[in-house]
Amino acid sequence: MSSLPIIGITMGDPASIGPEVAVKALLDKEIYEICRPLLVGSADVFRHIAQRLDLKVQINPVVSVSKAEFVHGVIDVFDLKNVNVEELEFGQISAMCGHASFEAVKKVIELALAQEIDATVTGPINKKSINEAGHHFAGHTEIYAQLTDTKKYAMLLVEDKMKVIHVSTHVSLRRACDLVKKERILQVVDLLHNGMISLGETNLKIGVAGLNPHAGDSGLFGTEEAEEILPAVEKARLLGFDVEGPVPPDTLFAKAATGYYGGVVAMYHDQGHIPFKLTGFRWNAEKNQMDSVRGVNITMGLPIIRTSVDHGTAFEIAGRGIASKEAMVLAIESAVQLSNYRKEGA
Q1: Contact by Cβ (8 Å): 207, 244
Q2: In terms of DSSP bridges, do strands 306-309 and 296-300 run parallel, antiparallel, or are they unpaired?
Q3: What pTM did the predictor assign?
Q4: Cβ pair 119, 4 in contact under 8 A
Q5: Are 323 and 218 in contact (CB under 8 A)?
């Protein structure tokens, strides 16, 4: 047991499905066979959700990693004591919840930087709540980048054969177009290549999306392909990467879903997220809920490991007991894989 990696898992927004999926994931005995999980957040919130949903588990608040028991059936929580559950309202935006979720992220980063834990996994946060609490970030990725002083980073989404990294993420579409630059694309190709290797991917062929319809169609619909994307692809080839592009986005992702590419580079947030979620998310129209929510979000380029569920706070179903633990389990498994890879290479 002592040789297994310690994985710090944040609760996410207390008013979201974050605490629920975290507890549900740690009810799986298999998780304790691959790692030593430690929740980070408010023990009162986790105790509250366990009682509310009648989840048979003991919550064990600790003040240091060394006090954790790491025994299945007893969920260890690095207790930040930062939520008054009497004021907690599921599905509601609040500064209290925003501050609590931010503090959990900050603490798990501190623990990882101090090498007290081997990897971090994050539950979903609400950006509005975070900002109302005075923490002005666009999302987890930006929080991690600032608190680890990382300048070159990117968001990588992983689900089965689909691996998508982004040139830009949480910016306006107008700004995203301006960020399509040769050096950034090269940087992201390198981060994707390293990510695929660390995840055990053997197909290292990378597809790079165009920005415009039909990848610009020889300049008819834009010049970014000729001026920025193609030069980046050509330079990447000279550097030894197996890379193809710019490929029209409407065909790139269809090929990627079959495993033709080991990974793909998307130019902006929705260009990558929409096809990715079409492969991993399954909506049940009859039940008016998701049947399956699969996908892991990995921040590449950090000095520490960070994986996350690739879904939001799902305020509309928070506290109802119907949230899927799938993405959280996958995020934990990916964190373990990345941790083991890093240890083997040390």
Answers
A1: yes
A2: antiparallel
A3: 0.89
A4: no
A5: no
Q: What is the mean pLDDT of the chain?
A: 93
Query: What pairing do the DSSP bridges indicate for beta strands 162-166 and 154-159?
Result: antiparallel
Tell me the three state secondary structure of residue 79: strand
pLDDT digits (tens, 9 = 90+) for 1-48: 678 999 999 999 999 999 999 999 999 999 999 999 999 999 999 999
For 70, residues 6+ apart whose C-beta sits below 8 A from its C-beta are 1, 6, 32, 36, 37, 38, 76
Q: Where are the beta strands (DSSP E) in the chain?
A: 6-10, 36-41, 58-62, 74-79, 119-122, 154-159, 162-166, 206-209, 243-247, 263-266, 281-284, 289-293, 296-300, 306-309
User: In the numeric block, which tokens belong to residue 181?
Assistant: 């630059």
Number of neighbours of residue 304 by Cβ within 10 angstroms: 21
Tokens 């020889």 belong to 218
Which DSSP string do the residues of 75-123 spell out, in sequence order?
A: EEEEE-----TTT--TT---HHHHHHHHHHHHHHHHHHHTTSSSEEEE-
